[in-house]
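ENCODED BACKBONE
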Amino acid sequence: MTISVSVVIITRNRCQSVVECIESVLSQDYPEIEILVIDNASSDDTCITIATRYPNIRLLPQPTNTGVPGGRNIGIREARGDICICIDDDAIFLNNASIATIVPHFRADRKLAALALRIVDQYGNIVTKLIPRRDRKIIGADTPGANFSGTGFAVRREVFVALGGFWEMLNPYFGEEPDYCYRLLDAGFTILHTPFVSIRHYESPNERPKERRLYFGARNAPWMALRSLPWPAVISLTILTWGYFFLQAVKENQLRSYARSLRDSVRGMPQVLRIRKRISPEACAALREYSGLYYY
C-alpha cells in the first residue's frame, strides 16, 4: 500500500525562490504528492504566480503573517498525507528520489514520528550549524536523534496533530523544533537522522535580520526549556543561551534589542509555567544520548 505524502511549504515575499522549491517537489519520483503552500501575507506576486502556474497546488493565503510554527501547523493540519514533509521556500530537494527515500523509513518503524534530513548549501557542503545535534557531529548512517532542522524534515501527521503541533507562543520562529521533539520523545516516539536525503538550502537575499534572530532566540529559548525540561536543564540552558546572545549583542551592537528580549522572556514565564509538564526520565536520557538540546 502506498503511503500518502504531503509537502508543506511556507512562503512570504519569495516568489522566485518558492517557484524553484515547488519545481523540485514536482520532479520527485513518487506518486500522488500533495503540495500545500501557506502564504504568510506576501506583498509581492507570490499568490497570483502560484495560482496561475500551479492550479493543482493547495494554496492557503493567510491575511496576516502566521510565523513559522503557525504556518506549518496550518499546513500539516490541512494536509491529507500520512507523512508531511516540510521544506523551506528557499530550499530544494537535492535529487528526484528524495521522497521515495524518505517514505520507507516511516513504513519500517511505526514508532518513528520525525525524520531529520541533511542540509547542504548551494555548493553541496554540509551546513554544520543546521545539523540537529548539539555536538554538530556529521553522521554517515541512519542514526537515532533528538531534534531536526526546520529547513527540511518529515513527520508522521497523526502523531504531530495528536501532540498539538508546534508551539505557537514561539512565533514567528526559534525553538519550535526542539520543543516539539521534547514532547515527541516524552510520548514514546522516536526521531531518526538520515544522511541519505539532502535538502539544498540557498542563501536568500532577504534573510532574517540578525537582530531578529537575537531577539527571538534570547526570548524563546528559556520558554522552550521551562515548558518541558528538569529544573537543572532549565537553569543551565537559560544562563548559557542568554550568555551566548549577550556576546552576539555586544558584537553586533544590539544591546537594546537584547535587553528587550530578556524583559519579554521574563514577562512570558508565568504563562509558560501554567502549562509546564516535565518530560520523563527516559526522554531526558534520549536527549543526552543523542546529543539533543538539553545541557550545553
